[in-house]
Amino acid sequence: MQVSHPVYDVVVVGGGINGVGVAVDAVGRGLSVFLCEKDDLASHTSSASSKLIHGGLRYLEHKEFRLVREALAEREILLAKAPHIIRPLRFIMPHQPHLRPAWLIRTGLFFYDHLGKREKLAGSKHITFDAATSPLKAEITQGFEYSDCAVDDARLVVLNAIQAREQGAHIATQTRCTSAYRENGLWVIDLENTQGRYTVQAKALVNAAGPWVAQFIQQNLKQKSPYGLRLIQGSHIVVPKIYAGDKAFILQNDDHRIVFAIPYLDQYTLIGTTDHEYQGDLNKVTITQPEMDYLLDVYNDHFKHQLGPQDILYTYSGVRSLCDDESDNPSAITRDYTLALSQEQDAPLLSVFGGKLTTYRKLAESALTHLQPFFPTMKKPWTEKALLPGAENLVSVELLIQQLIQAVQDVSVQLASRWAHAYGSRVWIFLNNISMLHELGQDFRHGLYAQEVDYLVNQEWAITSSDILWRRSKLGLEFTETEIQALDEYLLELHKRRAMSAVA
Questions:
Q1: How many other C-beta atoms can be found within 10 angstroms of the C-beta atom of residue 450?
Q2: Helices 65-81, 360-371: crossing angle, 10 deg rounding
Q3: Do domains 7-45+155-228+334-374 and 397-496 have the same CATH topology?
Q4: Alpha helices for 204-288 (secondary structure H)
Q5: Among 500, 203, 501, residue whose Cα is nearest residue 350
Q6: Which family does it belong to (predicted)?
Q7: Residue 1: what pLDDT?
Q8: Are 306 and 259 in contact, with CB atoms under 8 Å apart?
Q9: Looking at residue 409, what DSSP letter applies?
Q10: Contact (Cβ atoms closer than 8 angstroms) between residue 204 and residue 350
């Protein structure tokens, strides 16, 4: 049994977007930070999103003006911070007069264009559809177009974790917080991983456990949760690419919800999301048959090309932890975040309820504002202008792709594009001056080579093939079971070598 009791300023529980956001903000302000995550980074809600950085057009109907204003401003900030993993995306909203009148949509889009600071993204406009060329059904003749952004959600989490580590934070994945209690003005935090159990101490504890936030308070801290929690499942389906072009569609439905159809990984279309109460095992969230039927029905109501269950290549589901506002409609529950501060013996507990991918940075700033009285020497906010790893010295992704094609013989445009969008300027770290593809080591197929795998294990906390294929590279849709097995065998040997090296 390992015995150690280092004292950190802040310990963060949870390695989703909110947890890493708080960690990187705190460590950059001069605080010592430890973050633990029971699984892989972004392994739950933060990798199960619609892959969007958006203001939330539909939130205007629920009068969430503060949230929308903040999210709209954050689009521009995040686009500048990480242009390799975030890109502008135009959305088309087919007009369905029986659902929302045109004047209402125009009013909403006017607010959407002007509520937040908008410099890089184009404004909205009314459009008409050519029945001969439009993928939409002939009766849909007009609509509206506006801007938001697409993002690689899991990589957004990983890049924040890398930045936190480089600022001095300790990031411990596959490490569960089994309990925590206050003693002598500090938090005593018991942790467990595959190597055993150990303890750290903290002046402040941040509970960013996402769907587990209330459960963590009740079971691990033996306290009462200050807020009720609504667990809302959102599911997506992935199908072969169903229309030409690079624009997304936002589809209205009779239940007043919306469903997105989004170009995904060049050859697929992502359709989602759903909204319904979830009461099952948070570690085993899967799409239900009614959810699949719902998404297919909404899509088929709009598009000429019809889809059936046989067209679904992949599904994923996540649970959003929303602060209970006693709404009868899951879609109407606020997506805004609530921070609950509990202080006893000068050892504060800050719990994060709710939140969305787009506003993680502002949530973190708000969290540090809550903790400021306990750390009077804390530095000022700093993350707004700080580039995320890979954005340094990045003139443009397009230029980087061309540089990669020139530097590495036989590299395809598709592979160079994946590298550039995933790693930005840091792609040169794992390429390490190689000039030919075969120099990258074992070929696992589909553009994945040993040198990239080694980099992901050594620098990005990847342990399993799922970590690499579904969260770090998004190659999971391409790999066969045999190919996955080959990657698993390589990873097993790699971890053995690392373990032996650590002992030596």
A1: 15
A2: 100
A3: no
A4: 213-215
A5: 203
A6: Belongs to the FAD-dependent glycerol-3-phosphate dehydrogenase family.
A7: 38
A8: no
A9: B
A10: yes
Per CATH, domain 7-45+155-228+334-374 is 1.10.357.20:
no
Instruction: Classify 172 as helix, strand or coil.
Output: strand
Q: In DSSP terms, which residues pair with 443 in a beta bridge?
A: 449
Type of residue numbered 92? I
pTM as predicted: 0.96
Phi, psi of 142 (to 5 degrees): -145, 165
- 10 burial (CB, 10 Å; 0-12 / 13-18 / 19+) is buried
Q: What is the pLDDT of residue 327?
A: 58
Query: Strand 52-53 relative to strand 186-193: parallel, antiparallel, unpaired?
Result: unpaired
Q: Which two tokens stand for residue 426?
A: 């840091």
Beta carbons of 239 and 313 less than 8 angstroms apart: yes
Domain regions of the chain by residue span = 7-45+155-228+334-374, 397-496
CA-nearest of 189, 181, 220 to 12 is 189
pLDDT (tens digit, 9 = 90+) per residue, 109-133? 999 998 877 888 999 999 999 999 9
d(CA 420, CA 428): 10
| Phi, psi for residue 227 in degrees, rounded to 5 | -135, 150
- Contact 79/175 with Cβ under 8 angstroms? no
Q: Which CATH class is domain 397-496?
A: mainly alpha
C-alpha span between 226 and 113 (Å, rounded): 36
Type of residue numbered 445: R
pLDDT tens digits for range 80-110: 999 999 999 999 999 988 888 889 899 999 9
State yes or no: pLDDT of 397 exceeds 80. yes
